[in-house]
Amino acid sequence: MTPPVAPLAPDPELLRVQREAYLVEAALLGTDAIPALHDTLDSLATAGLAWYGCRDASGLLGAVATTSADGVVDIDRLVVAPRAFRRGVGTALVAHVLDLAPGAVTVSTGRENYPARILYERAGFRVTDEAEVEPGLWVTRYRRP
């Protein structure tokens, strides 16, 4: 069973888990051009994101960060500690956002990040487009009404 999701403040543990998760994605994508991979604690704290996370006795399992504008919530980041892969953490975090969102939810992920794409598609997200957002970094964008 996944622990409950609760509000989270940026801290060194979150930065570590984010870095670990994005290193795995960078390997899947074949590029380290993922902007969040290069965050510092300061940039993480000043990014203007609402964070939610879940923990177990060993620490942070994963976190999701959102922004919202015009009634649309955007999942800006979803990170899961590699030690918690395939344990339902990402699904629980996405479900939490969907429960909180008053309307549509958007998200983007690396085009070759198939585990994330499967997660979003299972949650009812549909592809809206693909774009090269950084040289060599292609993302697939999703929306869930």
Automatic annotation (TrEMBL):
GO terms for molecular function: acyltransferase activity, transferring groups other than amino-acyl groups. PROSITE patterns: GNAT (PS51186). Pfam families: Acetyltransf_1. Residues 1-145 form the N-acetyltransferase domain. This is GNAT family N-acetyltransferase. It comes from Pseudonocardia petroleophila.
